[in-house]
């Protein structure tokens, strides 16, 4: 007879950063960050995402040690760093404006923190030059920041952050100072560096597109709370709440007898009302209020029937129709249609965040 074997629980994957009931209260009123729990996997690219004022930068600054914690804990590789000084945490920060010293060369900017630590000139210059070579900036090591492009300054800023050999790199809107073209280029570089270095990156952004392009894990915040944690694919395909569906975009939020549901705009079909069956559980009448050509697809804006469109009204619903489908059957403003969707394309949405959502990666 087999002896009963106690069930063994496999340990959770190692976390580079763990936030435990982390809270920041600046003054009376609702906290900027409200008892959030989060584990960020070692070696992953994590994006903190949310609208202005949601608490993402405050969270990052608390991890960096640039902001005091009202209550809760921050652990780095199981070490409690909540009250440790910024320079002694194993984190490094890369800022939006790169914060390079204008009067110092790229090499001296990168070597600066080693100088402050009393590292000798030969060693600090060797280490700084190695890092500049690594980010393909070795040839421009003697240039001052004003003599470098935005992208080159970003590489210097990255090298400068890495010189202290951090375990976790914190990036506060690192791409927002760049023009749109360079932003996309540097986004790819950030992702490549993170993979090459095998470091944990925590990147704050308000851009859904940026977070989707970069993150292994996205953390969507709203009003100091975490609304949802997941891969870009999970968040985009199964937004947990009405807020996430609306914030991520590309979704319609519909009221049904069973509550609110979300359906992706590219997972809805349009049929002329004259050819449609009566509305059912997975269909709805609507009137076209907007037709936008977007290249590979046409975006139709729609209102519920009976709502007269005004010049300032934004469409309540939108549907993506492929360019070919629109060419085969164009739709015009004011046309009555039926929207339909497959039952599996719809998922229910929470309307309010739960205050103590525990987000474990
Ligand atoms: N030093 C401060 N003193 C008082 N309130 C602050 C301070 N810093 C931030 N706040 C408040 O805390 C809340 C969260 O701010 P935080 O900067 O973390 O938001 P955010 O999501 O990063 O926004 P943004 O994208 O605009 O930077 C906001 O309501 C903000 O006004």
UniProtKB/TrEMBL annotation:
The keyword Cell membrane applies. Residues 17-248 form the ABC transporter domain. The keyword Nucleotide-binding applies. SMART domains: AAA (SM00382). It comes from the Bacteria. GO terms for molecular function: ATP binding. Keywords: ATP-binding, Cell membrane, Membrane, Nucleotide-binding, Transport. This is ABC transporter ATP-binding protein. InterPro entries: AAA+_ATPase, ABC_SmlMolc_Importer, ABC_transporter-like_ATP-bd, ABC_transporter-like_CS, Mo/tungstate-bd_C_term_dom, P-loop_NTPase, Transp-assoc_OB_typ2. It holds the Pfam family ABC_tran.
């Amino acid at each position: 007879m087999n002896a009963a074997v106690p069930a063994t629980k496999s340990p959770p994957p190692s976390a580079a950063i763990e936030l435990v009931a982390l809270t920041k209260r600046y003054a009376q009123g609702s906290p900027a960050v409200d008892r959030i729990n989060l584990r960020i996997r070692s070696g992953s690219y994590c994006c903190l995402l949310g609208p202005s004022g949601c608490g993402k930068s405050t969270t990052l600054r608390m991890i960096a040690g640039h902001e005091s914690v009202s209550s809760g804990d921050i652990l780095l590789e199981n070490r409690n760093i909540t009250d440790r000084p910024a320079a002694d945490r194993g984190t490094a920060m890369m800022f939006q404006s790169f914060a390079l010293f204008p009067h110092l060369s790229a090499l001296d900017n990168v070597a600066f923190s080693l100088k402050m630590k009393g590292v000798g000139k030969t060693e600090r210059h060797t280490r700084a030059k190695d890092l500049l070579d690594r980010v393909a900036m070795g040839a421009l090591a003697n240039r001052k920041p004003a003599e470098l492009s935005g992208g080159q300054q970003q590489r210097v800023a990255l090298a400068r952050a890495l010189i202290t050999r951090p375990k976790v790199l914190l990036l506060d809107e690192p791409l927002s100072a760049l023009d749109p073209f360079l932003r996309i280029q540097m986004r790819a570089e950030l992702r490549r560096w993170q993979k090459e270095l095998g470091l944990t990156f925590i990147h704050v952004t308000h851009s859904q597109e940026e977070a989707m392009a970069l993150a292994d894990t996205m953390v969507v915040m709203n009003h100091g709370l975490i609304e949802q944690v997941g891969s870009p694919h999970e968040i985009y395909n199964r937004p947990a709440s009405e807020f996430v569906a609306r914030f991520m975009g590309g979704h319609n939020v519909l009221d049904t007898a069973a509550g609110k549901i979300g359906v992706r705009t590219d997972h809805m079909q349009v049929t002329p009302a004259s050819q449609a069956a009566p509305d059912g559980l997975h269909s709805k009448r609507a009137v076209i209020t907007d037709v936008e050509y977007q290249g590979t697809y046409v975006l139709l804006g729609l209102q519920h029937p009976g709502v007269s469109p005004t010049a300032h009204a934004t469409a309540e619903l939108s549907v993506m129709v492929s360019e070919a489908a629109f060419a085969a059957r164009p739709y015009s403003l004011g046309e009555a249609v039926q929207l339909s969707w497959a039952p599996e394309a719809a998922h229910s949405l929470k309307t309010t965040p739960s205050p103590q959502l525990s987000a474990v990666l």
